Protein: BZIP domain-containing protein
Organism: Penicillium chermesinum
Amino acid sequence: MAGPRVASSGPGPAGISKAPDMIEVTYDESGSTSQAKKRKANREASKKYRQRKSETQHLKDLVRDLRKEIKTLREEKSRCNSERDLLVGRSNGLIPAHTLSSQPHSPPAKLSST
């Protein structure tokens, strides 16, 4: 970082004289450089915060959607169980018990063509 610069009314660079009516001015670049670094760091921190916030919101939305899907699937399972119980109840009166297998038949295995 550069320190303060001073312009004076004495001889300037390469022996060039300044006018005697010039005012001495101190120019400090270190303050503006320091603030620029702070602004840059703050911009980067804000960017990271917004990114994390966006990711967090995305995950919250995903959790909400998955919970909704779980609820829907549980309701569907409940309806299927009720329908099964109804059908089993009806079949108990129509089909003699000894003709029913104790477990449903397994679906045929699919043969892979590799």
Notes: The beta strands are 5-7, 25-27. Residues 34-89 form one domain.
